[in-house]
Amino acid sequence: MEMLKTAILLIKKDIQLEKNTGQLSGAILLFALLAGTIFSMAFLPGQNQLQNFFPGIYWFTQIFAVMLVLNRSFIRDTENSCQTAILMAPISREMLLLARIFANYLLFLLLSVIISPVLFILFDAIPISGPFWLLPIVLLVNYGLASTGSLLAALATSTRISDILLPVLLLPVLIPLILAAIETTRVLYFSQLDYNQLYFWLLFMLIYNIISTLISYLLAPYLMTE
Amino acid sequence: MIAEKNRIKNYQASNLKFSRDGYNIINDISFKLSPGQITALFGPNGAGKSTLLKLLAGIWKPDSGKISWLNHPDLKDFNIGYIGHELFLYKDLTARENLEFFGQLYKTNNLNNKIKNLIKAAGLELWLNEPVRKYSRGMQQKLTICRTFLNSPDLLLLDEPFTGLDTKSANFLIKLINQNRNIPVLFTSHNIRQGFKLADNWMILQAGKIIKRSKKQNQDELDTFIKNYDKILAGDILNGDA
């Protein structure tokens, strides 16, 4: 309950910051449009080849947008040492990191809501078999991005080169999740759904998320420092 | 704020040691703080004053040693009021949004009234809904003070709190400190006269060690103290000589 309350506070603060500055939402929308346009011009796909490249384009656009958001939100928190004031709150570091993960998770879901329609329309890429399966995939992948991203952002923040270090640390750790995300989404573009494949990758992502949450919880006291 | 029955009685730091990048910054420091007592920490630049306050606030962890309040089982209800060199404010949020965010995070009771009273006392009513980015440095410092006192702290740790404040703002801070006289207060200052005036006890820190400590006695002592301060730092006057 405490974690949830703290997460809501962090989200409320991020939304207020965004409302006052309007820096991020416009940039993300523009980024999604640009990425989608460039990719659609570069690949010139036929509809029967959609499954070969669209899942990759879709998830890489999401991951780069996530990195923009993560960087920005941690820069906002480290400016004037606000992060230190947050750490001094009478809340355990574990709860703070879990709250941050949850807050980022909701933000990333919002990103998906912005990015997905842009890419689906530009590529005319609504999944033909079982479009509703996209929902659990988006929920699981974004959670994985939030838990791993928040953990590594907390680690990178304590260094002097956080903005460079974050993508360098994050991308290798995300490789299993990116592969799973692409493979699961690819399944949705075949005329017949391969349920074995689908369940395997969904389970894989679930395990990835559990492990990354456990690691975050255990490392929080060491990583959540000034 | 922690319940009266669970209130920490013993504010003690024992055998603190801290090093960074191979330098010993804090060398085996022990002292007690008493509720209702204001302690001034003097010392030259680089003596380790700010580092010591960060250790006491729990921002950094000492390499060894114990800080009684940070090991207390009720720490989750224990509020430390800390003013550092940084503002701890979101510049793109308004004063109200900053105070509401930190107030809720620190589980402050009766938040709206407290914000109203503190902002009025600080003379920032007209700026309450303006982004902090528009404030002058002194106004930002005053807002930081408001944020610090918002959550009824159980312990106050103030690092050079008077820096950048005009006389009126300094008086605002002193008034708030005096309103919280039932808790221990530790502050650092380069302004020895001002610090000595406010404090009940004082300590001098040099090269990570407390080289002298005393209770404030009278005006004569202040004059002697100021006269001898450089000699104390140079090691010409030993504990109890000044």
Automatic annotation (TrEMBL), chain A:
One of its GO terms (molecular function) is heme transmembrane transporter activity. It is found in: Membrane. It comes from the Bacteria. It is a multi-pass membrane protein. The keyword Transport does not apply. InterPro entries: Cyt_c_biogenesis_CcmB. GO terms for biological process: cytochrome complex assembly. Keywords: Membrane, Transmembrane, Transmembrane helix. GO terms for cellular component: membrane. Coiled coil: none annotated. It holds the Pfam family CcmB. The chain crosses the membrane at residues 21-44, 56-75, 96-121, 133-157, 164-182, 198-220. Its main location: membrane. Belongs to the CcmB/CycW/HelB family. This is Heme exporter protein CcmB. It comes from Halonatronomonas betaini.
Automatic annotation (TrEMBL), chain B:
Residues 11-232 form the ABC transporter domain. The keyword Nucleotide-binding applies. The keyword Repeat does not apply. It holds the Pfam family ABC_tran. One of its GO terms (molecular function) is ATP binding. CDD domains: ABC_DR_subfamily_A. Gene3D superfamilies: P-loop containing nucleotide triphosphate hydrolases. Keywords: ATP-binding, Nucleotide-binding, Transport. It comes from the Bacteria. PANTHER family: ABC TRANSPORTER ATP-BINDING PROTEIN ALBC-RELATED (PTHR42939). This is ABC transporter ATP-binding protein.
